[in-house]
Amino acid sequence: MHKTLTMHLNIAWTANKGADADTGHEAEQYMQQWLPVNTFVMTDQQPDIILFMSGGSERQALEMIQPERPVLLLSIRGNNAYAAATEVMAWMVSHGRFAMLSDCQDAFETGLLNHWQQMVNTWQGFYGKKAGLIGRVSDWLVASAVPAERFRRQFGITLEEIPWSTLPDYNGMLPDTALIERFHGQNIQGLNQAAQVLAVLRQTMVRHKLCAMAVECFSLVQQRKVTACLALAQLNTEGAVAACEGDLASMAGMLLLGAFAGNVPWMANTTRITAKTLLLSHCTVPFNMIEKPSLTSHYETDCSLAIKGSIQAKEVTIFRLSGPLDKAFIAEGTVLDYPDLPSACRTQLEIELPAASLLQMRNQPLGNHLVMVPGSYGKILRLACLYRGIKMIE
Predict the structure, then answer these.
(1) 295, 272, 289: which is closest to 341 by C-alpha?
(2) Cα distance between residue 136 and residue 229, in whole Å
(3) How many whole angstroms separate alpha carbon 141 and alpha carbon 154?
(4) Is residue 306 over pLDDT 80?
(5) How does the average pLDDT of the chain come out, rounded?
(6) Residue ranges in the chain assigned as alpha helix (H)
(7) 235: burial class by Cβ within 10 Å (0-12, 13-18, 19+)?
(8) How many CB atoms lie within 10 A of CB 185?
(9) Across 338-359, average pLDDT
(10) Are 297 and 306 within 8 A, CB to CB?
(11) What is the pLDDT of residues 208-222, one digit of tens each?
(12) Per the count of CB atoms within 10 A, which of 42, 166, 237, 381 is most buried?
């Protein structure tokens, strides 16, 4: 998985022209009350945060704001600082630019300051990375292909297409020990081949220096009678984002949600929506998300191996990005049950969701696949999407 780097926030300060010479020092000391010293630098270049120290500072703030760089406008209490920040916020809104406004102490106490830092670090951490598409996007994913240029513009990640024909035949690879050891040397038919597929994909990630991959896996199972399910599950368990079916929109969602959650999400099918619940199912659940995994055949082809297990979670976050990466669906729900339907992929989960979220999925779905993690990450995900101009479906 892409690891969020610890980066410095760029913090600028602004005050009226008659401010004391030591105002800059006071601004730095003030921020040290709310952020660790090693997490920010005071600079007027490309600020992530502008701290208003007084009124009459609006013009100076506008001179520092960058055209495509969102900014958090913070103020000290008193000295007409919040009034000045409000005027700048109004300018940002009227010019179609994204900013947020808060009293600095309030931003700390509500968690906004911490979320802003996480979000800036996450988005900036993507820049310069590379992701891979192994094979091509599966034919049936008509809403999930992401143009390489769009991926680069939105995430700062270069997308490299890697045909299966350029990769070594899995039959010539030594089985990856991580998968073999996971099942304690059990004599499971097909496990060695699954571990060989893992060896190919792991080697590809290393050689091409990929932060993530989307793998067209059905051609493998149809032509060679071996699945990539276990290989993808193992990589995701280790923190290396690996989406199946060549689903680039899901890969993007896994990268973003996983960066905040600290674990790679589960990519799953929208299997059924009722008046109150969503049923998810898929065969590639990360091993660290389930208890006592069992191996069974792949659902669609009834051959090779897939994973069946009970996801250990109470509260979950569900996320989906559109193919152009310009819209997002976010919902938080409660786990109700672990069905065992014979007519669905092997790992299954029933989740209770708000009625509005279920209605959105019926009337405005962004695609079949959803990504899910245990925990509550809706608030920071919404902020992260706003930061990049990604609109919530409503």
Answers:
(1) 272
(2) 17
(3) 20
(4) no
(5) 92
(6) 23-31, 58-64, 81-94, 104-110, 112-126, 148-155, 177-182, 191-207, 218-224, 229-237, 248-261, 355-363, 378-387
(7) buried
(8) 9
(9) 86
(10) yes
(11) 999 999 999 878 776
(12) 381
The CATH number that domain 130-392 falls under is 3.20.14
Structure tokens at 160: 């490299």
Q: Which pLDDT value is given to residue 337?
A: 87
Burial class (CB in 10 A: 0-12, 13-18, 19+), 95: exposed
pLDDT of residue 295: 80
Q: What is the DSSP string of 94-130?
A: HTT--EEEEEHHHHHHHTHHHHHHHHHHHHHHHTT-E
Say if strands 347-352 and 327-337 run parallel, antiparallel, or are unpaired: antiparallel
Cβ(137)–Cβ(311) below 8 Å? no
pLDDT higher than 90, residue 189: no
Backbone angles phi and psi of 341, in degrees to 5: -80, 130
C-alpha–C-alpha distance, residues 362 and 380, integer Å: 24
Residues 151 and 290: their CA atoms lie apart, in Å, by: 31
For the domain 9-126, what is the CATH code?
3.40.50
Q: Please give the pLDDT value at position 1.
A: 39
- What is the rounded distance in angstroms from the CA atom of residue 78 to the CA atom of residue 74? 12
Residue with tokens 């299997």: 271
Region 112-131: mean pLDDT is 95
Phi-psi region of 110 (alpha: psi -120 to 50; beta: other; left: phi over 0): alpha
How many Cβ atoms sit within 10 Å of the Cβ of residue 2? 23
Looking at the predicted structure, is the pLDDT value of residue 256 above 80?
yes
Nearest to 4 by CA among 117, 109, 150, 110: 117
What confidence score (pLDDT) does residue 3 get?
42
- The span from the CA of 279 to the CA of 376, in Å, is 19
Please write the tens of the pLDDT for every residue from 44-81.
999 999 999 999 999 999 999 998 899 999 999 999 99
Q: Looking at residues 115-121, what average pLDDT do you find?
A: 95
Hey, where are the domains in the chain?
9-126, 130-392
DSSP string, 172-212: GSPPPHHHHHHTTT---TTHHHHHHHHHHHHHHHHHTT-SE
Q: What's the rounded Cα separation, in Å, for the pair 330 and 383?
A: 11
CA triple 105-110-116, angle to 5 deg: 85
> Which residues, other chains included, contact 274 with Cβ-Cβ below 8 Å and sequence gap of 6+?
358
Q: How far apart are CA 319 and CA 330, in angstroms?
A: 5
Q: Do domains 9-126 and 130-392 have the same CATH topology?
A: no
